[in-house]
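Kindly review both lines to help learners:
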Amino acid sequence: MRHLLIYGTSAIAFFVSLSGAAAADPESCRQVRMAEPGWNDLAFTTGIGVTLYNALGYQAESTTLGLNVIYESLKNGDLDVFLGYWDPAMKTYYQPYRTSVDQVRVNLEGAKYTFAVPSYVWEAGVRDFKDLQEFADKFDKKMYGIEPGSNQLMLDAIADPNFALSGWEVVESSEVGMLSELARKTKDMEFIVFQGWAPHPMNTTFDFRYLTGGDKFYGPNFGAATVSTQVRKGYLEECPNAGQLLKNLGFDIDFENKGMGFLINDGMAPDEAARAAIKADPQRLDAWLTNVTTFDGKPGLDAVKATLGL
């Protein structure tokens, strides 16, 4: 009986070892190619992903690309992971690629995304998209967007005859450029309409209001949105361990606001912000790393904690 018990214990250990090894991915999965469009929320969450993958022994990197380029790259197999599909705001970009991109999960709920104005502009009577044309001269017929390629919904609103915005211009620059213009305009109490969203520290840095009337483009409830993780077609099957991390990886508004604060207010790089946010809230690792191993099949949670000094 003693020999049977020893054999049984050894057999269990052997099969557990095999199970762990089987969870590791093939060499072709070691490199994890990610991208984001230069938005601070996605720079932060992608930084989390890159940090975790690298701590697990993968070779992850992120590139800043326009949305159209991101989807074309996923379609062509030049990218693996995109953590930033805002639904419904990005439907226009995503629609042509539905059959060549796989949805993994919703990684954030409670987001919103639509036109916004400073509170003094809202109090002056600009409370809906249809109010913009009445104050066209005060706005100098300009609305402020972010990176080129990310402002199609603004352009679509201008083209909609219901809003009488013919002749208006979308000023495209970057998230930082838009917020700098917002800071300058609000200092002098000038009129400005811009692309606003949450999560983002702008919601506490500036006193502004979201406009109604954009349901056709941004969806109801001020562009209420979810953010989802997407991958190139077949990635989850090819790289199941890397895919398991993506299935686990979820965020919330407060966590992202704090993380973006590290980027915007403290000037941290995305990987630095990711490490700071994880160290401030390490219990999140338990859920993120459930059933996830290192690249070579060892316990993932232990490896990440050791790498991050937790």
Q: What stands out?
A: The chain has two domains: 29-109+226-308, 112-223. Residues 1-23 have pLDDT under 50 and may be disordered. The chain is about 45% helix and 20% strand. The beta strands are 31-36, 59-64, 81-87, 101-118, 142-144, 169-171, 194-198, 208-210, 225-232.
